[in-house]
Amino acid sequence: MKYRNFLGLFLFVCIFCFGFIINGNLSLYFNLSGVLIVFGGTFGAAFLSFKTEQLGIVLKVLRTNYKKKIKKETEIVQILIDLSIKSRIEGILSLQEEENETSILFLRRALGCLVDGYRSDQIRDILNTEIYFFKMRREDSERVLRTIADFFPAFGITGSVVGLISMLGGIGDTSIILKAVPIALTSTLYGIVSANFFMLPFAAFLRERTNQELLLQKIIMEGVIAIDSEMNPIILKTKLESFLTPSERQETLVSYKKLKERFNITA
After folding, report:
1. Do the domain assignments include residue 254?
2. Is residue 249 in a domain?
C-alpha cells in the first residue's frame, strides 16, 4: 500500500476508535462470549464452505498484493516502445534477453511466445486465455472474501439471540440479565465491524488491484502483437496512448520528437 493509504488508514482508525473512547468504559465493548460466537462461527462456516487450500490462496493473494507494487500504465507503455525499437534494430530474437530479465510474469509469457515464433493470432489467443483464467482466479478469491463478510453479521445476530435467551432464562435475577446484555449487543457489533471494516474492504481492494492488472495485461498483449507485426514505434506509441488518461499522455511519455531523435526513426 502507498504511504498516503497508511496515513489515511491510521487517521480514520483513530477517529473510529475515538468514537468508542468518548463514551467512557472501553471494557464494555469487550465480551469473550461474543468474540467466540462470532469468530468461531464465521471461520467454522468458512472452513465448511471452502477448501483449506483455497483459503490459503486467498490469504496469500491478499498478502502479496498489499506488499507488491505494480507498475504504472505509462511505465508499461514505455517498456513496450523500447522493446519495439530494439526489435526493429536488432531483430525479434534479441528480445529473449528481455524475457529472461523482466520481473513482469505476463510480459515474460508474451515475449516468450513472440521469441518462439508464434503467429499473432496464436499469441492473442494464448494471452487472452491467460487473462481469462487470471480474472477467474481473482474473482474466486474475491467471492471467498465476500462470502465470509456475509457470515460475520449472521453470526453476530446468533450471538445476540444467545444473549436474549440467557436474559429470558434469568428473568427475576438481575445479575444474569446484566451478564447477558453485553453478549447480545457486542456480538452484533463484532459481526458488523468485522464484515465492513475488514472483509468487504479486502474484497474491494482485490477487485481494484485485479482491474489494474487486467489493464496492464491488455496493454502488454496489444504491444507485443504490434511488435510482432513490426509496427513503427511512433504508431505503436499512438496506439498504446489510447489506454492512458490525457494527463498521463502529456506529462509522462516521451514526446514524438525526442523519440525520433533518440533512435533516428523516420515516421
Report:
1. yes
2. yes
For the segment 87-132, what is each residue's pLDDT rounded down to a tens digit? 888 888 778 777 666 768 899 999 999 988 899 999 999 999 999 9
d(CA 261, CA 85): 13
CATH of the domain at 177: 1.10.287
Residues spanned by the domain of 172: 72-263
- Domains identified in the chain, total number: 1
Distance CA(246)–CA(227), nearest Å, equals: 24
For residue 215 the three cell numbers come to 489493464
Taking a C-beta distance cutoff of 8 angstroms, is the pair 92, 115 a contact?
yes
3-class secondary structure, 232:
coil
Amino acid, single-letter form, for residue 45: A
DSSP state of 242: G
Residue 234: inside a domain: yes
Residue with cell 498484493: 65
Q: Which long-range contacts (CB under 8 A, 24 or more apart) does 246-251 make?
A: 248/73, 248/74
Q: Do residues 237 and 260 lie in contact, with contact meaning Cβ atoms separated by under 8 Å? A: no
What pLDDT, on a 0 to 100 scale, did the predictor assign at position 170?
64
pTM: 0.83
Q: Side chain identity at 13, as an amino acid letter?
A: V
Query: In the predicted model, what is the mean pLDDT of residues 158-163?
Result: 86
Backbone angle region of 14, left / alpha / beta, with phi > 0 → left and psi within -120 to 50 → alpha:
alpha
pLDDT (tens digit per residue) in 24-73: 677 778 888 889 999 999 999 999 999 999 999 999 999 999 888 888 89
2 — phi, psi (to 5°)? -75, 160
Question: What is the distance between the alpha carbons of residues 177 and 157, in angstroms, rounded to a whole number?
Answer: 18
- The CA-atom distances, in angstroms, between 170 and each of 166, 175, 180, 183, 187 are 6, 8, 9, 14, 19
